[in-house]
Write a structure and sequence with these properties.
Helix content is about 55%, strand content about 0%. It is mainly α and about 170 residues long. This is HD domain-containing protein.
Amino acid sequence: MPNYRSILSAILEGYALPIDGPHGVAHWARVYDNGMRLAGETGARREVVGLFAVFHDSRRLNEHHDPGHGLRGAELAHSLLGELFHLADDDFDLLYEACAGHTDERTHLDVTVQTCWDADRLDLGRVGVEPHADYLCTPAAKRRSTIRWADGRASFQVVPEWVEEQWGVELE
């Protein structure tokens, strides 16, 4: 299991946006929760999904249209690979693809990448957009009960209780 406290510390050193903003730590934590819930059904690689949650928006320069932010997050992950976390080459390739393509790509052949993208898209309620099954990849994410659960958490800006203890980040 990666040391998320160390990874988050490294990410936040160069994070350009407010940590409590729409693409900040609470979003990453909900994406993490969404991804772990989905991975239990999809069989996705949990370690990849968890790392995607913290890297995918980690190098945004603004809260709006930010071409290339996913690729910058993937490059940050690459720079920390072997130092703060370890992944097999195949798993890192999935993480890189998931981060780089999460905004512009529609779907992917690999269920782990699909699960990453669904975990992120299920959190659209934080910006007032209800997730739609047509834009999700996996049957688990497309289920109405999953969409309702995730959208409710996103809409109310839920900060998972474990964020401060496990990630070492204090949010209000």
